[in-house]
Each structure stands twice: as C-alpha cells, then as structure tokens.
Amino acid sequence: MTEHTVRRTDPEKYPRDAATLRALTERVDPATSVVVLRWSRDPRCVAYARLELRKALADWGLSVLEDSAVLILSELLNNAGLHAKVTPEQVIETRYFRSSGALRIEVHDGSSARPQPRTPDSEASDGRGLLLVDALADEWGVAERCGPGKVVWASLSVPVVRPVERDCS
User: pTM for the full model?
Assistant: First the structure.
C-alpha cells in the first residue's frame, strides 16, 4: 500500500532534502487514499504541489489524468496564493483524493472570497484560470470549510475507452 503524507511545505523554511522530508512526514491512514499538504504563499510551492500530485497519481494508477490534474491544481493554487489570507496558523492546504477511477483536488485557504470565472480582456495576461478549470474538470465548485475560509475543488474521472467497432462485412 502506498504511504500518504502530510507535510508542512515552505521552501524558505524547509529545504527539500531527504532528511528534512522524513522529519516533516506524518503517516496518514493509507487506506483512505488521500494526500494532504500545507503550503505557504511562495509561488515556488506550486511546482512542489504539482510534483506531489504527480507522485500520488502514479501511485494510484491515475497517470492518465496527470496533464489535466496538474493544470487544474496549478490554477487553483495560484489563485489561493494571490488572494488568500495566509498566516503561520492559516496556510494553504491541498488535498488529493482517489476513488475508483476518479480524482478530487481541493485547495483550502483562509479567504472567504469566492472565486468567480470572468471573461478576460483579450490583452490581459491573467483571468483565464477558472475557465481552464471549468473546461478540464468534470465538475468543480466552492464550499465552506471548518474554520475560516473556503475550499475550491475539482473532480476528474478516468475517460472511458470504448473498443473500436469493426465492420465485419
């Protein structure tokens, strides 16, 4: 069974060497198929979060979802980093859940402001993140959470591959 971890991940405070990771790792019940990670607002954390999601997807046999899942995570985590209230007690948290043939990505933050998709100006370099999430996810949404803030989530399922029908005439 795969070991799943909870880590407090801030590249300024916690270097990514193996000894540090072992010190930061706490066991989570492997039967739950969930990975929970905590992040600072540092933009470098997005790359670390993508790496951890890729590892989880590979462990769970869901690598087919990697491209879409990583892009969705990037958009949600970037939004949280830009807009969330983050203090040492209120970090950004990601949760990755596996269920049979599906994945749920959650980003928890301390801001109660709910994200809204918008139509970006054609000249703007931002404003397209939630449109991408909407296009790639099977569904997504925003919910309240215990404590201050919100959770923004997205779900993906493994595409069904149907056998090609042959004309046998």
Answer: 0.75
